[in-house]
Amino acid sequence: MTIIRSTSILAALGFLLSAPLAHAIDTAPSSTLQSAAVARSAVNGGAALGTVSLKVDEYKETDVWGRIRSGYAIPDISNSLVERHTKSYSLKPDYMARISGRASPYLFHVVQELEKRGMPTELALLPVIESAFNPQALSTASAAGLWQFVPGTGKDYNLKQNMFKDERRGVLASTDAALTYLQRLYTMFGDWQLALAAYNWGEGNVQKAIKKNQALGKPTDFESLADLMPAETRNYVPKLQAVKNIVGNPGQYNVVLPVIDNQPYFTTVDKTSDIDLAIAAQLAEMSEDEFKALNPQFNRPVITGERTKILLPQKNAEKFHVNLASWGKTLSTWTTHKITGAKESIASLASKFGTTPEVIRQANNIPAQTRLKAGSTILVPKTSSSLHSDIADNIVDSAVMALEADRGEKRSGARTQRFKTKAVASSKSRVSRNTNSRRKHR
């Protein structure tokens, strides 16, 4: 399957989390750190992936950046593209610091998962290239999340995509899927640089390029195949190498990376019933933006499903449990409604469920000047009859929403406006005549 990922890093800059205070990190050369900590295993399963064999409990690092450096295992490349991208990143230290701050809630988890699988830890830097560590990033090819999965590949790796959530954006699910995919690609090509090229370009395209060079008696390593690749893929591995160089020795490039503590930032919290996103954030004593940064997969204002987990910072998880125990009110104010015909307009639905058209549009991401087609399922406020019921799993899995241009209402609105204008003019005329009449009889 051909996979195109072209997310603009600049577009992702709008999504900024509160970065930790920036401090200079240890700038020991990466080669020194690697020689002290990196071990290539030629015996165990880790070697089958060309990776490292370090155990989690062997780490003495206090900073996640040091932990990443310690696990570098992909052979370096050095060429003009690497030099160009390294210079480009190093000339934007504030930009690198912002991306690093944005990465801070996620990076420990990604590194830990890489270590569990015995994979090179510089792969934790790949979201810098893919999404600038913005879980809400969406490319022109509809690739989404930190790891930029297109819809089809997301489904291949069991990432649920429905009206209520898109697991391509979920931190846990997308990271697990991305690492599984990268492992599969490494097994296919036996080379991490080619695996990375396939992650960006698609394994079929890389296989074709290999066969073409083989037929010509040429080498089939990444750099030998680069001329056959599109520009994005040709620059993909050099960009990762550039980020790897800077993280390996930030002082050399006058870059200061915010400290990211070598400990979990978040924990998982089970929920047993539907809960509004706003209420979950309130119980955790977090802003909605902070909550969404850890739980970006939820597309609607209600989080559905008994087995759905949410992520919270350690300290906020404790507050969540305490506040939940004393809440005493309904946790969800939303239910679903299926559109049966054209007569059910957003305005009529708002009246039926005691809300406004704007609330319904916002909750369901319905653009202005569009209307719902019959068969669509939407969120509406709960009524007294549905106050204590959750949205059924089969509705969550099958709900769809189809829209069409609201031309009919626009014409009707225009006629109504013309009628109102005539009525107002007529009324003004009557008022004027009555006023003049009264003046004449004074």
UniProtKB/TrEMBL annotation:
Residues 407-442 are annotated as: Disordered. InterPro entries: LysM, LysM_dom_sf, Lysozyme-like_dom_sf, Transglyc_AS, Transglycosylase_SLT_dom_1. Residues 1-24 form the signal peptide. Residues 335-380 form the LysM domain. SUPFAM superfamilies: Lysozyme-like (SSF53955). Belongs to the transglycosylase Slt family. This is Transglycosylase SLT domain-containing protein. It comes from Massilia niabensis.
